[in-house]
Amino acid sequence: MDNHHSGPVETGAPMDYAEHEKTYGMFLAASKWGTMVVVVLLIAMAAGFFGGVGFLGSLILFIVLNIAGVFLLR
After folding, report:
1. Which of 21, 50, 51, 60 is 20 to 30 A from 27, alpha carbon to alpha carbon?
2. What is the tens place of the pLDDT at every residue in 21-56?
3. How far is the C-alpha of 44 from the C-alpha of 4, rounded, in Å?
């Protein structure tokens, strides 16, 4: 019965706050870049399907908008 903790949860194992902050930063970066790629993909698909630019035009638009997004989201 030595492993039974009767106190509050806050008195448990110490947290590694530096690792927590690093993980949270990576999560925010992945969310930001992933959202940008999905939005750019949807814009390129809409231009290809409804705008009449075709596959090659939408591929070029996808690449150009991703490059612009990298510079804008830094």
Report:
1. 60
2. 999 999 999 999 999 999 999 999 999 999 889 999
3. 57
DSSP state at residue 16 = -
3-state secondary structure the chain: CCCCCCCCHHHCCCCCHHHHHHHHHHHHHHHHHHHHHHHHHHHHHHHHHHCCCHHHHHHHHHHHHHHHHHHHCC
Please give the structure tokens belonging to residue 33: 């870049």
For the chain, the residue count is 74
Matching residue, tokens 């039974």: 4
C-alpha dihedral (12, 16, 19, 25), degrees to nearest 10: 70
pTM of the model: 0.75
